[in-house]
Amino acid sequence: MPAVWLWSAPEATAALRSRDLATILRVYRRLNKLSQERLAALLGYDKTYVSMIETGRRNISDVATRRHIARTLGLPMHALGVTDNDDADFAAMIQFGDSTIRLAEIARQAGRAVDAVNELWPLVARLEARAAEGRAERDTMILLGQGRAALGVSLGTVLPEERLTAAARWTGKALVIAERLGDRAFLAHALRMHGNELRKADHVGAAIARLSRAVAVSEDREGQGAAFALLARAAGEHRDPDLFDLAINGYRERLDHGGGRSMLFNPFTFREIELRGLVATGRTAAAARVMQAGQPDAAPVAPQWHIIERVTAGKVLLAARQRDGAEASLRAALLAAEVHRLPHQIQRTIRAAKAGKLSQVEVEGLAALQRLNDLLTVR
User: Who has greater pLDDT, 58 or 91?
Assistant: First the structure.
């Protein structure tokens, strides 16, 4: 078992908190299924020496020896009563890491996904380096999982479609941690985020599997509603009307029990997902009726959702043969997507315009995409 996962296990966490070298070595051997002889070989000691440490007959107070044991086995230095040169600095980063992730999420939801990536990358890179050295406790692994998920979602917002697999890789790495930590709420969150990034990267079947599991794992109403929202979107793209209806009804039921204000769980987002799914599953007349009913009494929680909704509205209007309205809607989406640096939404707009034979809007979209690509390349 790699040291990173060994020290995210609850039993190992308890051993580390004891700061008792004998306890730590016994737990390390048990979780790794090592004999005293094998552990001694790893450390370069005699088996008898390891036995004496584990039974308390030999007390190791020498700092150099404790450093050697920690480095060889991938243990956090401070758990053995010694420090590394960067331990104090790293401890401060852990303390404020959660705030960094929250602030980055606020930036992303405010339409500043590039800023979110710039905030998250230094934190995640350092956590990755620490974990690769095996120096990772449970709190560190939780923060790394949260950072990976946030970075993947932010990348999924700002990257063009041809590079969205990179975003799915990061959320997938977050899910790997979530599977091992025993935190059900974080597991549900990681499943939702990874499922959605898989959908955007055109792995819709895998996305449906993750999102269906997210529905089952989520325990709170808002979490279940968000999982149903993303599942409905994936089912629509999969052209599966039965699954779409099941998911959108589950979403509606939870939303009806009390309004939500999160990015995914609110009436504005519900309407956009319903419209898109109805069009995708061939029910354009039903989508047109939803459009005619007007906007819900709610504003988009984040700027990008206004853009997403304008593209979807353009598609519905094209299906209803209202070309002027569709052109205006798609142009509004293009303008806002360029301002907020969202190439994926520009690409959606270009596809909608091309399918609707709105050639001028398509040309304008290609020009906006080129300008945005040039800008992001310079950065």
Answer: 58
DSSP tag of 336: H
What is the per-residue pLDDT for 378? 43
Q: Are 263 and 269 in contact (CB under 8 A)?
A: yes
> Whose CA is closest to 139, among 89, 107, 96?
96
Longest dimension (CA), the chain: 86
So what's the pLDDT on residue 376?
59
Distance CA 3, CA 355 (A): 52
pTM of the model: 0.76
Distance CA 254, CA 267 (A): 11
Long-range contacts of 237-240 (CB under 8 A, 24+ apart): 237/199, 237/204, 237/280, 238/204, 238/205, 238/208, 239/280, 239/281, 239/282, 240/281
Question: Which is more confidently placed, 259 or 274?
Answer: 274
Q: For residue 29, what are its two tokens?
A: 């051997």
CATH code: domain 87-217 is 1.25.40.10
pLDDT (average), residues 373-377: 69
- CATH architecture type of domain 3-84: Orthogonal Bundle (1.10)
Token reading at 46: 């005699």
pLDDT at 238 exceeding the cut of 90: yes
Query: Domain residue spans in the chain?
Result: 3-84, 87-217, 302-379
